[in-house]
Amino acid sequence: MKIASDRNENKINSVEITNDTLSNRGGLAFMMRYLDEIGIPSMIENRFGHLRKSSKGESIGECARQIMAFCMDGTKHSISRFDELKKDCGYAAVLECNTDKLISTAATKCFFRKFRGTTFLPYRSILNDLFIWRLKLEKPSIIKLHLDTMVLDNDNAKKREGCNVTYKKVHGFQPLQINWESHIVDMHFRSGEKHSNHGNDAKEAVARLVKLIRRRYDKDIPIIVSADSGFLSEENMLFFENDLKIKYVIIGKLYGSVYESMRNNNVSESVRVEAKNASWVCYDFQSKLDRWEFPRRTILTTLVSDNDQYVLEGIRDSVMYTNLGNNDYLDYELNIRGFEDLTKTEEIVKLAHHNGEEELNHRSIKEFMGSEHLPFTNFGMNGAYYSLMLISHFLMESFRKDVANEIIPVRCYATRLRREIIDIAVKVVRTGHRIILKTTRAIWETLDVSNFWKKCNNPVLIC
Fold first, then answer.
1. Integer-rounded Cα radius of gyration of the chain
2. What is the span of the domain harbouring residue 193?
3. Same structural domain, 103 and 201
4. 3-state secondary structure of 147
5. Which of 8, 193, 275, 331 is 20 to 30 A from residue 141's alpha carbon, by CA?
6. What percentage of the chain has pLDDT greater than the value 90?
């Protein structure tokens, strides 16, 4: 038959070893060049170089660079992966080094053992510096931050320092995080039992970022913080209003006093908010909880239809508190910057509903990590590991915006970027004192590799 004949003509007869330098992770070359050009390994070396007590082995910055490559690759999430990679000359080539310069599993563990106690905390300032870098690049006229905690489920790894029972009834860690758009811009690594409003963690984290924004980006820019009910307290709201001079939208719990205030003030429907398949009736009034000193703007929403099905009123209510629309200086700043609509009821409700979309950042980082299980027994080592994960995730998002925006133009999870950009076959050729990375014509045209490479080599430096 003709079909069988065609197949026989192209049939593989044997398999052999090639001495060519090949890699199936060719896209890492683009990402690592991008990281090198913006200066992140040097930044880490400047912050942590003092931890290196011997001239043997690789520098702190180089170790961090290879660990970030491991995070971005995401092929395997075990620390033992470093011993496998050390045998791969193709992987070394895309990282622009030789195999003898690749760190081993033992060297990786030695790197993380340098971070005991709170030694890893300067990673947080690196994350903050990256945030300011993005602000100066994207130049927003208003900054919306989302405050939340995220549980890392380590239930099958209970012999971990700080791996305690979380509110989700699993053993793990519960870092406090602040999101801006698709980036996690601040993180306070904490043990699992620490709830959302533990101590002054939330106030200190928000104050840290607000002061940074005011000092290094724009001293007058309006800042809005959204948060769920775990952060609802008059202490927090007074701190945001009086000390930080920022706006907030915080979800509350449905106490009886909320409905009592509505009845006492004869509150009627303010507006109706429509979404894709749902509709809410909104009530806008002033109220305060029993222990509060001052009433605050309160918006209660009642879901009246869901997926074209009517819902009984009062069955699915939610309430939020805000200081938007107080006719203060920040409202004036919103007006002159063209964001006066944010003081309207329907826009405040949309800000609160956006909290659900912000959860995508948590899903994104968990998908990026591959496993929520942190690899070490020591709390400080796990803090350093998770910090490097967040920095790698931040930089991958920045790479998507700065370099891959024409290929992957929308917000996506790491898997798509890994499959379309990192997982490409390349050949590394040495000729005429030059090293050349070669791809197939199909990949060259799909990624527009020539333009891609230029973008990787010309990013805006971190200031």
1. 26
2. 122-369
3. no
4. strand
5. 275
6. 57
